[in-house]
Protein 1
Amino acid sequence: MSLAPRAVLVHRRTEYEELLARHGTHGQAAFFLSSRGRSIDEVARRHDDTRQALRDVASAVPLTWRSSTVERADLDRFLFAPEDVVVVVGQDGLVANTAKYLSGQPVVGIDTDPGRNPGVLVRHRCGDAASLLRAATAAGGRAEELTMVEAVADDTQRLLALNEIYLGPPGHQTARYRLGSDGGTDPGEAQASSGVLVGTGTGATGWLRSLWLERGSTVPMPAPRDPRLLWFVREAWPSPATGTSRVAGELGPGQGLRLTVESDRMVVFGDGMETDALELTWGQSVRLGIAATSLRLVT
């Protein structure tokens, strides 16, 4: 007998909850903000709206389904199952934070604060949740397959990201490494920089775009569903031992970028999740390319 679908509601702590965690009580948090010319009322209102949205979405889950809730900080410890329908209740960035832990499960994005969020990935309102959950499990249900980027280290560690993957030093030091194309006999170029960024079309409105604009790149930015990645080296430093001839490029299906660490330590993380990073040391290598897994975003 097959298991009934499980709706997994993903959310994150609100600003109000973070204030309470820091200051202990509503009154102390209100005093802290008022002493700086700010009011807690707007923060509390957004908290109430988010909590109401979670209640509304939870009540829309069919009675025959199972359900679970997970907070953003616990995503790396949560076990998603093949029959799950993932409902992200929050901001666009929360969809990206969730995507790296999935393996093809449909995702529904619910916007808890229309007007403040761009709504690129959280495209729906709470009132649409019931019909979207049914559509997510229906044959032929509509979903966009958004391209993801992956990093695979030589010790089999693997990292997925929806927007971008960053490779660089853990602090503000200089990263030293060798960068080249994957496969063949390409020895790569020795480089010293503040890191390398590899991004997708979904990430083309964020960090990747800022680098693209900074370089005045003539390479077209990919769309979210394009099987294409762009990569940029940040602040490459020329010296007698390091070069700057390979500082930008694109990757298509089957193509990869290989980085070999030539410093004590480098970190690799995706979509700003620094707490869930791969750590590489001298001599280790990592391959960057298009992931076989994509994000199934229910439309």
Protein 2
Amino acid sequence: MSPTTETTTQTTLGIGGAAESTDMVLNIGPQHPSTHGVLRLRLVLDGERIQHAEPVIGYMHRGAEKLFEARDYRQIVMLANRHDWLSAFSNELGVVLAVERMLGMEVPERAVWTRTLLAELNRVLNHLMFLGSYPLELGGITPVFHAFREREELQNVMEEISGGRMHYMFNRVGGLKEDLPAGWTARAREAVASVRSRMDVYDRLVLGNEIFRGRTRGVGVLTPEAAHAYGVSGPIARASGVDFDLRRDEPYLAYPELQDTLEVVTRQEGDCLARFECLLEQTHNALDLADACLDRIAELPQGPINQRLPKVLKAPEGHTYAWTENPLGINGYYLVSKGEKTPYRLKLRSASYNNIQALAELLPGQLVADMVAILGSLFFVVGDIDK
């Protein structure tokens, strides 16, 4: 080729110190590392160190709060059921408590105790998922098999009464859909005992694992001040020393009579390990509460499980707020009524939405390798963020 026709192209990729001083922007997602949801993290890195973190949400947004306004008070239970698909019964519970408060309705005692029982069983189901999936995110595959085996025991009794495995739709305004099947309480007691007998596997297999402790101890420390500032709640906040649990501090359902059994588990370290320990101990306590509820239900006389409602249910004009201690933290519903059969406004305060905002505080200064450990320890469901 002659010199007159030859062309040469040069591209400069980076030069010495100029390249070193340039921050890298890394997008994690949009997906959750264990694939139960769609979340994006926008990280600004300086080498292996995170300088800035921004959770980017909204990929699963369903507009549930606007849909509430177009459904009557029976139908909104179905919508409220679904934002945290691991806490479906507890989600239903909050919205029916809000409507019942607006109506000034007293729920039969049998329904109160049964609701409390099912809420605690749902808490165990939720926690088992994270007790198994969190070690999985750190490279330990075995615990998740144990977790799903225990979940199946409890799923079977929940499915027997409601017909659903995830979305139970068993709560109704005024009580529950129907009474418990014959012999169900005995089968539930057996399931609780069976799960409790094998819970020590997490103490031995997970907490006793030096690699797990090395990856989580002292990592992702959330201070009590930051937890308060971001509205963090549930086991994540209690792992940072925030001693607050609605079941004790503003009790509802049958919790006023369960104070001797209820234990509010706290830690002071605020790291990933403390969050896992709080979750595990809270699971043990939820099994104890379930047993206490089963004992009480056995003593109750036969009676109604719900209130008879008019064909068209209308809440009186006014507003109220009902909040519950859901498995992942505080879940609240602010209900505004204009006296119609549909809510004028129903604002949902979900636990995961506040909890995940703390990532902006937790991740800066941490290594990229610790990012997954911190993210997984916040125990969130993306549908609960994108409500």
Protein 3
Amino acid sequence: MNAHDKAFRRFLIIWSGQLFSAIGSGLTAFALGVFVFQQTQSTMSYSLIILFSFLPSFLLLPFSGVLADRFDRKKMMIIGDIGSIAGILFIFLVMLSGQMELWHIYLGVSISSISAAILNPAFRAAVSDLVSEELYSQASGLIQLANSAQYLISPLVAGFLLSAFDIKLVLLIDIMTFLLAVGAVLLIMKHHATPQKHDRQSFFQEMSEAFRYLLSMKGVFSLVLLMSVVCFYIGLLQSLFGPMMLTVTDSKTLGIALSVSASGMLVSSLLIGLFGMGKSKVFMLSFSLVFAGLFYALMGVFTSVWLIIAFGFLFFITLPFVNTSLEVLIRTNVENERQGRVWSMITAISQIGFVLAFGSAGFLADHVFNPLFDPDRLLGQTVGQVIGTGAGRGIGFLFVLSGVLVAILGMMIGRVRKIRELELQVVEVRKT
């Protein structure tokens, strides 16, 4: 077995641990969302769980990216997993005390989110340590597969567990999966060390340098700005799909719908992981976004659970192609020693859209779009004749608008010269 094969095996060990922890996180996310919605019947309360599980991680990403370049990335992954355990354990203990309130859940998921900010940039940067450039697409596809597991497997399992057991069992399972992730990193730590920087600047100097470096790369920066807009619309879908479905079905069917829809990510992630992708990542990114927008819009048109699942499946098929194209374009244009800082900066900028979506989705649904689709309102009497009226139909209309705009952005990305030049730069470097 050559050195590249051994390195890829070590990557697979770490990846396996992250796969299990992603499944556990998905169990908890689904269970807490259903638990809160059933207690409050509020889309706002539901979406706030997503916001608090995301915002702390988002705010800390620039700092954690600097840490990923300064310190051992595998040790950072262990610290992140242990911190996630602490957040879930806090919620579990408060539930045992019988004094659970909404703010306890928000605080617990915030603790886990802080830990994710430490783990995620270190994991992404560690890929460049372990995997040769020829295997970047396969590694990225497997990472997308691990991420998709929390949407593919977790909702179905969580729906069953919630119907037969108490939510506390779900939290205990999540804690166990994080322990598996820690064990996986410990297995390979002695075999591979993270390249270390010798010139230690201050955090803010390194963050500033990473931002200047990103600004100097016009194509990557243009791509990140456009993707931040796409992230806003994806964030609306994440926040509102559950509440929309719960207006037409129950939580068990919601779990089935999420798992079946997300199986589209499994199909395309496996294909990418096994065979890679075509040469033109820019074309694949643009093409995939256009179809993602189309299927997104169609999810909002119908009230039939089966049609929503079908278009959800097609929507999720496109996401690994979008994510892998984006990741490969950036990874092949960023120097390895800058990967941690630059990845965290890219993530921070692009995910501003998620913050805005998670913060506004509940208000938009409860106070703007759903009221517009009352049977006696103007949109209820016009557009409502096509997509339906009443609870959840305002969310459906918001999905239609968002999907159309995502498709338009997909077409725009393919026409930006600086983005197209990213592939040309990689080809020129390889020739020299």
Protein 4
Amino acid sequence: MSLAPRAVLVHRTTEYEELLARHGTHGQAAFFLSARGRSVEDVRERHERARRALAEVAGAVPLAWRQTRVERADLDRFLFGPEDVVVVVGQDGLVANAAKYLTGQPVVGIDADPGRNPGVLVRHRAAQARRLLPYAAGEGAAADELTMVEAVTDDAQRLLALNEIYVGPSGHQTARYTLGLDGTDAAAEAQASSGVLVGTGTGATGWLRSLWEQRSSTLPLPAPSDPRLAWFVREAWPSPTTGTTRVEGLLDSGAGLRLTVESDRLVAFGDGVESDALELTWGQTVRLGIAAPRLRLVH
């Protein structure tokens, strides 16, 4: 007998909850913000909207289903099942935070604060959850299959991301490495830079796009479902021993970018989450390319 679907409601701690955890009471939080020219009421109103949206979605879960919640900070310890319908209630970035822990489960993005989020990934309102959840669990649910990026080290560490993966120094030092491309006869190039960014079409609306615009690149950025990635080297430095001939490009399916570390320590992290980073040491190689899993984002 197959299990009933389980609705996994992904949410995050609100700014108001973080303020209360830091300052103890509403009054102390209000005093702290007022001393800086801000009102705690604005923060509390956003908190209440987020909690109302979460409660509305929870109430829309079919009675025959199972239901659980997971906070963003606990995603790396949560075990998703094949029968799960993942309902992200929050901001676009929360979908990216959850994506790397999934293996094909349908994802429904619920915008907890309409008007403040771009709504690229959280496309729906809480009031639509009652209809969307049974639809997402059905066989014919329409979903965008969003490309993801992965980093795999030579000792089999692996990192997934929906937007982009950054490889570089954890602080403001210079990253030194040798950069090469799979499937080319050209020699790898020694480089010194502030890091390398490899991203998807979903990420092309964020950090990746800022680099693209900053250098007035003519590189055609991929769309979210395109099976290719774009990559950029940040602030490559020319010197007698380091070059700048490879600073941007596209990676098609099966292609990869290889970095061999020539610094004491570099890190690789995805979607801006530095707390979940791979540690890379001198002589270690990391390959970046298209990940096999895709994010199934329900229309």
